[in-house]
Amino acid sequence: MGRPGIEAFPTHLAAKSKVSASTQNQALNAIVFLYKQILAKHPGQFNAIRAKRGKRLPAIRAPHELTPT
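Above: the chain sequence. Below: its structure as tokens.
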């Protein structure tokens, strides 16, 4: 699996499987770990379509939730 394969897998996860950004990051980190630690090769730079991070909504609490009981 060369550079095209490394780029294709995370792109597939983001575009076709619609996984979350954290899932895609974990897959990318696993590939980098495989190349560096197991195969003893440097994976180099690769470009892949990245999954979009979800918007974080602020936590809004009701007044009775703010006071300790």
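The chain has one domain: 3-52.
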